[in-house]
Amino acid sequence: MTRFREPCIYLASVVIALAISCASCPSIAEEQGVSATGITIGGMGALTGPTAFIGTPGRDGMMLAINEINDKGGICGRKLTLQFEHASSPAESLAAVKKLTEQDKVFVVVLASGSTGAAAAADYVRTNGIPTYNLYGSTPIIREPFAKNVFHGAIVPVEVAARDLIAMFYDDGGNPQKFGILAGTYAFPQATLTAVEAYLKEKKADYVVERFDQSARDFTSQLVSLSRQKVDSVLILGSFSEAGFAVKQAREIGMSNVRWVLDGSAVSKAIIPILGNADGLRGYFNVPYFPGQTASMREFEERLKTLIGSMPQGRPNNYDMIAYGSVFVIAQAIQATGCDLSWPKLISAWENLKDAGPTKMGGLDVTFSESYTPTDHQGNYRLGAAIVRNGEWQVYRVLDKP
Amino acid sequence: MLVELGLVLIAGLKFGAIYALAALGLVVVHKATKTVNFAHGAFAMLGAFASFLIVVQWEWPYWTAYLLIPITIGAVAALLEFVILRPLRRADMFTVVIATVFLGIALGEAFRLTYNTELLAVPGMFAGSPFVYWGVIITQETLWVIAGALVTAVGCVIVFRYGKLGRGMRAMAASVRGAQICGYSVDQVYMVAWCLGGALAGLAGVFVAPIAGVSVELSIAVITAGFVAGVLGGFDSLKGAILGGLLLGVIESLAAAYISSAMKNCVSFFLLFFVLMWRPEGLFPEKVARRV
Amino acid sequence: MFKRFAFGGVAPFVAVLLCTVLGLALENYLKYVIAIALVSMLIGVALVVLVGLARCITLASGAVMAIGAYTSTLLMTRVGIPYLIGLVCAAATGALAGWLIALPGTRFRGHNLAMVTLVFQAVAIILLREAKWLTGGAEGIHVPQPVIFGWRVANDADFLLLIGLLSAVAILLLSILVRGPFGKNLQAASGNEIAAEAFGISVPAYLRAAFVISSMAVGFSGALAAPRIRILDPESFGVLPSIFMLAYPIVGGMQSVWGGLLGGGGLRILPEFLRPVADFQELFFASLVIAVVMFFPGGMVELLRRSTGRLFSRTNKQLAGEAPPLPAIIPAEPIAHVAPTMPANSSEVLLRVEGIDRHFGALHAVNAASITVPVGGIHGLIGPNGAGKTSLFNIISGFLEAEQGDIDFAGTSLLDRPARDRIALGITRTFQHVAVFGQLSCLENVIIGRGRNAVVDSIKQSFDHFVGGRAAEAAIREALAALDAVGLADQASKPASSLSLGNQRRLELARAIVSNPRLILLDEPVSGLASDEVEELRQLLSRTSAERQIAMLVVEHNIPFVAKLCRTLSVMGSGAIVAEGNPKEVITRPGVRQLYFGEQTAA
Fold it and tell me: Which residues does chain B have with pLDDT short of 50?
């Protein structure tokens, strides 16, 4: 009988430990996260694991902006604080947002996670009304059904991205005859693929599709097939690792005279060393300038370096800038409530924001400004068309809503 | 059409050679210690990372990477065997599996903490113009990988078969007590086996770094491919590991080209399944004396 | 009678309910965490059955969980089937998945089995991902809120209650199986295949059952967790999550239900405690797992035992096996035997082996061998090494096939019958290398010896055992009587592996006699024993044969032992029976002496 008494005690103590480790609190309130001196912003994203390159810049960018705003005196006489929770799978994302909302009791939730995580979280926040800001998720399942408390920031819906990606094939005298699409089989590229295929069918364009698994490194078979079908324009929907090796191998098998356009997640400094010479590659970028392209971008990089110590390869990437800009949008929404801090007021102020962004509050010009309406919670529809010139990415024009 | 086939086969052989080297290291450790080291892929990743440091960060000559890295990773592997695996020598087989799996995860995370990036690029050793045979383009790098990895693998097999070390390992695998009576030390043999396995993994990492980049995914890809190739070849057969690796690489490439690029893994796994059903001892097993 | 089950089997069930109740008193976020942890506990217990008891490695838990989750969700969204039925269907598809894996899987062990499960895992996830029209593909699908008889399960308390109750019931059912004859037989099957088969345990059938039952529970838990996760996507059930689930039983403790609970719940909750070090979370997690398995090979259960063993005055001496409490009184009288009383020297033939032939390649291992054993008689079989005794013995006991000849046992032919059929016919055996089931207690070993060990029977017996039914009581009584007959009654609850060699041989004998067989086949029963133990065992065998009217066929090298014990003797040489008859007479024959010592007949 002593035999099972021990595990019983263990189980009971675990449960009691959980109880002790946090105080029992009443249910969530509409003014939670706001005190006389502070406003708490909650963030969620992957800090470890394969999607850490999304969540870590999310947190760092937000911290940078929060520090700047606090240095200038904060908002409504209060300082902003960030409560960031790690989450790398949909289940973890849901748990993280639940914790932020119900236990940490933040005022606003920012989703700095990839698409499947954001989808799980969005499903949850729709039911409890906390103002939620989706930074990076682009799949339709996050945006539908429409919810009054969910806002979407710099990253555009896949339909918009699809259109702009195809547009880049026509830039600078491009004349695509046959499209090839190389798409990853995981969530985000698949969602974009659906939109791209719909758009190409509408335009009655000739195209073929080849696919690859996440983190694949050998694309010879797919490229050989594309080459056989005489494509002259290839769209790659995947990460920079995948795109980089795909282009490298394409060159190795003699595929020349092909215009390459990359999806936004592949447009990163880190793709250049994979290829050596990456000139001519195009892709879209979610902010108006590439790091290093303007003075404010260089300043941003400096400030980020000061904040995080060293600059890992490939940073800053677009997730850094988007996160930075998002905090300013939230700050302006808060200001626009007239410092009457409650969820309904915040939501209605947010829905009527126009041209919100860092520059309005003394921040760096590193993102597209965002505008909302009560029926359209997508803040930004613009993308930067980028190309590699002389070994560096540059945004050469801005693609906007037609 | 044939040119296409040639390109696909070459790509298959390129990765197949890496798989062969990876599987070889795995089988060497298993032959001597009867355990599968699921951290093997992480050792390859560390080897690739070390290659990045040597070639890109410190800009030493490339050949130093090929020389120093197997030695270093072999030493790291031997150290880990001493610290973690020795206490587990009497433990359940499942416990050892979990220990090595999580060791691999820990090593991957440790790497990510030092260099929080999705991928680190490493240039190839040879960057000259590619060779063209009958319309099939082969880059110098590809040729180097295929030739280098295979030569190393075959050399290793020869050493194992005829060297004293190899004999000791095989004896240990057949009977620990018997080998001890003959004067072989369990500690020594196990440590050497892990060292050799680690060295092979590290070397595989150096070969694969330019063609796949350094990332945590590399660790998972190498152990999966190495394991599958090992089973395909007959898990205790060194020759089988090499042939299994090459076969796996070629089949994956062919499946992606001619069946379906999205279901590539599906196809190769199905094939494996049939091999297992038809010849569970593997396609190229070493001869085992039948016990009457 | 009900006192017995109240503790052992029900404790995990009560513990789960306790967690649920305590969780209901905490805040919402913790309710959520505990609900997810409870599902993981169920998975942990399910995997204890497969990984711990059946010793089958599986990398397919993720896929099975996905199958369950998608089944119930798709049935709800596309067909409008209510959640409860969806749960049942999820259990069914989970079971089907387990059966599919087991079809090839039971043929393999070790890394080949890992490969088979890996194939299933990868293929299942790829198919789920590619069937976009059905499953929504890589982007995933919403899971709707369940409605049960009009009760909309929406908030955290509702979910915790639902998950708590259902997982508690599932864990109870699994506990009953684990602790009862099913679990014991399963451990026997995976621990010592040959001995298990000899006593009617079909190893492939049990392994298959383990896969089916375990996968049923894992599929069920997938459906249970789905509404909490809200979005299902195939990647969440990939290889990495499968490996994490594999860790549940291994880190928790592989042999018991508690191991599953602690491993599953503990590993699921651990990330919550690691939130403050989020950047290093996975590193800490991996390091902790390594540390636990390194220092406590028995898992968290062992960790607990060792640490709380000092808190409680009575240290727990028992190892993994959990023996049921014994009835207070051991019956004094021996069990009435089934066979009609016959004089010891009956001439009626019980076992007739005729003209058995067997080759191994070019070697003629058994050459037209014939042996007869009378009812109640003791017949010896001797011969030098390599004479073919073991081969003949294995043919008689069903572990080797004969090429020619016949074996007749009281009118039934034994040819082409698998070894596991022997016990039902009344034939049991012992082994040259002692083959007791080490992790099981002596009592459990002997209970297996009673036979009636088909999968379905053992499942029924497990439930009977749980409620302390009459059949279970009878089993224990008979087993104790058998142990008493061989002088091991006081060792009944000790694990078999802790016995000395001599005592293990006695245990084997107890196991062989408890079913009141008509014939026991003994393979070198005194090999490795000291001379006084040899004499003790000889007396025991003699007595047992006489008291219970059991015939014996004894293969041995120890000639004096054989001479004293056996009434008739066969001598084998080079595969053929070269002499037969009364032991004293046979041994002195010149041909026999030449066989053994190479003596020249003509001096």
Answer: 290-292
Task: Compute the residue count for chain B.
Answer: 292
Q: Is residue C308 part of a domain?
A: no
Size of interface A-B (CB pairs under 8 A): 101
Structural domain that includes position B122: 7-278
Report angle CA A102, A105, A107 to the nearest 5 degrees.
Answer: 125
Asked whether the beta carbons of residue A211 and residue B261 sit closer than 8 angstroms, the reply is: yes
C490: Cβ contacts below 8 Å, ≥ 6 apart = none
What is the domain extent for residue C503? 349-436+499-597
Query: What pLDDT is stored for residue A10 in this prediction?
Result: 56
CA dist., res. C528 & res. C537, Å (int)? 12
Write out pLDDT tens, residues C52-64.
Answer: 999 999 999 999 9
B286 within some domain: no
Q: Which residues of A touch C282 (CB under 8 A)?
A: 48-49
Residue of C5, A31, A220 lying closest to B252 (CA atoms): A220
Cβ–Cβ under 8 Å, residues A60 and A321? no
**Rg for chain A (alpha carbons), in Å?**
23
CA Rg value for chain C: 28
- Taking the C-alpha atoms of residue B270 and residue B228, their distance in angstroms, rounded to an integer, is 12
Q: Which amino acid is residue C527, in one-letter code?
A: S
d(CA A6, CA B2): 69
Q: How far is B260 from chain C (nearest CA, A)?
A: 12
Residue B131 within a domain = yes
Over residues C452-505, the pLDDT tens digits come to 899 999 999 999 999 888 898 999 999 999 999 898 999 899 999 999 988 999
Instruction: Please check whether residues C231 and C356 belong to one and the same domain.
Output: no
Domain boundary among C175, C208, C238: C238
C-beta of residue A398 within 8 angstroms of C-beta of residue A385:
yes
* Residue pointed to by tokens 């044969």: C545
The count of structural domains within chain C is 2
**Is the pLDDT assigned to residue A45 strictly greater than 90?**
yes
Radius of gyration of chain B (CA): 19
Is residue B2, in this structure, part of any structural domain at all? Answer: no
Q: Looking at the partner chain, which of B220, B276, B292 has a beta carbon nearest the beta carbon of C112?
A: B276
Task: Return the H-helix or E-strand segment holding C225.
Answer: helix C203-229
Could you give the CA distance from residue C16 to residue C250 in angstroms, rounded to a whole number? 20
Q: From chain A, pick out residues whose CB is under 8 angstroms from the CB of B15.
A: 217-218
Q: Are residues C16 and C137 in the same domain?
A: yes
Contacts of C110 in chain B (CB under 8 A): 93
Q: What is the DSSP string of A2-17?
A: HHHHHHHHHHHHHHHH
Q: How many separate helices (H) and strands (E) can be counted in chain B? A: 11, 2
CATH number at residue C572: 3.40.50.300
For C247, the closest chain B residue by CA position comes to B98
- C356 shares its domain with C224: no
Taking the alpha carbons at both ends of chain C, their separation in whole angstroms is: 74
Chain A interface test: which of B7, B9, B13, B118 (most A C-beta within 10 Å): B118
Can you give the CATH number for the domain in which B144 is found? 1.10.3470
A29 contacts chain C (CB < 8 A):
no
Contact C7 A116 (CB under 8 A): no
State the residue for tokens 């932020």: A100
CA distance to A347, A380, C476, per residue, from A373 (Å): 11, 11, 77
Chains sharing 3 or more CB pairs under 8 A with chain C: A, B
pLDDT tens-digit series, residues C428-461:
999 989 999 999 999 999 999 999 899 999 999 9
Structural domains of chain A in order of their starting residue, each with its CATH number: 38-156+294-371 (3.40.50.2300), 158-285+385-399 (3.40.50.2300)
Q: How far apart are CA C327 and CA C563, in angstroms?
A: 41
Domains identified in chain B, total number: 1
Query: Does residue B204 belong to any structural domain of this protein?
Result: yes
- Residue C103, in any domain of the structure: yes
